[in-house]
Each structure stands twice: as structure tokens, then as C-alpha cells.
Amino acid sequence: MDIFERYPTTLEATNSMIEKLIVNLETEGTITGYTFSSMVSEMATLSDPVRKASAELYAKIQGIYFKKLMEDGYSKELASNIALMITASIEGAMMLCLAETSAKPLKVISQLLPNKLKEF
Questions:
Q1: pLDDT (tens digit per residue) in 22-68
Q2: First vs last C-alpha separation in the chain
């Protein structure tokens, strides 16, 4: 995700990414290219190699958040925990967007995330 290299903070990069997801959903009716949640949920039950590959990809996504959070000055443990929270929140919101055919879940995450990051 080169977007995380273009922005100085995790919050700015994450908000930019969420905005792109919202625009794609509202203009194209899809969020493909940014998530594999729906694919994983469909295929993970079919194959252990798919499940393992998915786990590795989620770990990579968390690693991107983790690296940026460390640059923002968070401790290693907190950066790891927040990275997991961001990954789960955004991936879950994307699944809800697809199910509801609405960008509202991502918009809510985008509104709440800045305050959550400030709390840490």
C-alpha cells in the first residue's frame, strides 16, 4: 500500500485509504482492489492453503499499519494492537458495505478512527 508512504501519519494515510474505498463503492458499486475479505470468507473454508495465504496477507496489512504507527511514536505493543484493531475495523466495515450496499460503515470508521487514535 504505497498510500502509507505518501502520508506522514497513520491517521492521514488510513483516512485517505478509507476515502478511496468510499469513492469506489459509491461510484462503481464495488470495493474490489482494496479488500479480499469477501474472497477469503468464500474460499477459506475450501482450502487450507487459501486460509494460510489469507492469514499472511492480513499479517502484511497489519504490518503496514504497525510500521506507520511506530513512526508515529507508539510503543511496539500498542502499535501492534492498534494495527490489529484498524485491520479488523476496516475489513469488517468493507464486508458490511458490501452486505448493505452502502458506504456508511466505512464513513463511520473514518469518523471514529481519529478519536480512537488520540485516546492511545
A1: 888 888 777 655 455 555 555 555 677 777 877 888 899 999 999 99
A2: 24
* Alpha-carbon gap, residue 10 to 28, rounded angstroms: 26
Q: 18 Cβ partners below 8 Å, 6+ apart?
A: 90, 106, 109, 110, 113
Euclidean distance between CA atoms 58 and 100, whole angstroms = 23
Give the alpha-carbon dihedral of 27, 29, 33, 36, to 10 degrees. 150
Q: Which residues contact 77 (CB under 8 A, 6 or more apart)?
A: none
Residue 84 φ then ψ, to 5°: -65, -45
The model's pTM: 0.74
Are the CB atoms for 88 and 109 separated by under 8 Å?
no
SS3 state of residue 35: strand
Give the total residue count for the chain. 120
